[in-house]
Design goal:
This protein has about 130 residues and is mainly α. It contains six helices and two strands, in the order H-H-H-E-E-H-H-H.
């Protein structure tokens, strides 16, 4: 589940999901209009307090990571994105994303074809039900 967070905490959390494990300094480097180092450490501490982030110490440096699997967070975030911007239609979202996409390679096209086949099978099974 994607947590509902204030803007800056969400920004830090998203950076961690994309680049963990990562230091506070590296988080700060990736932030837009980055606050001071102590503010970044405070944001990380708040996220740890919420149970969303954990750290390990390595050679005297803290490395931060999200506590949830990125795949789990990704699914929840994508669900929220589709609800917000595409009225809940995953097909509309996929169509829009494909319109923005660079040329797809054979592996990506095969994955897309497999996803379409599964969607068609689900639709056919729904139509067969009384």
């Amino acid at each position: 589940m994607t947590p509902k967070l204030p803007r800056r905490e969400r920004e830090v959390y998203e950076i961690l999901c994309a680049a963990a494990p990562i230091t506070a300094a590296a988080v700060r480097e990736r932030m837009a209009d980055a606050p001071g180092s102590s503010a970044v450490r405070t944001l990380l501490s708040r996220l740890e307090g919420r149970g969303l982030v954990a750290h390990v110490e390595q050679d005297g440096t803290y490395l931060y990571s999200p506590t949830q699997a990125v795949e789990q967070v990704r699914g929840s975030a994508l669900s929220q994105f589709v609800k917000t911007f595409f009225e809940g239609s995953a097909i509309s979202a996929a169509t829009a994303l494909l319109g923005m996409s660079r040329e797809a390679d054979a592996q990506e096209l095969a994955a897309l074809e497999e996803a379409l086949a599964k969607a068609r099978a689900r639709a056919a099974s729904r139509e067969e039900r009384p």
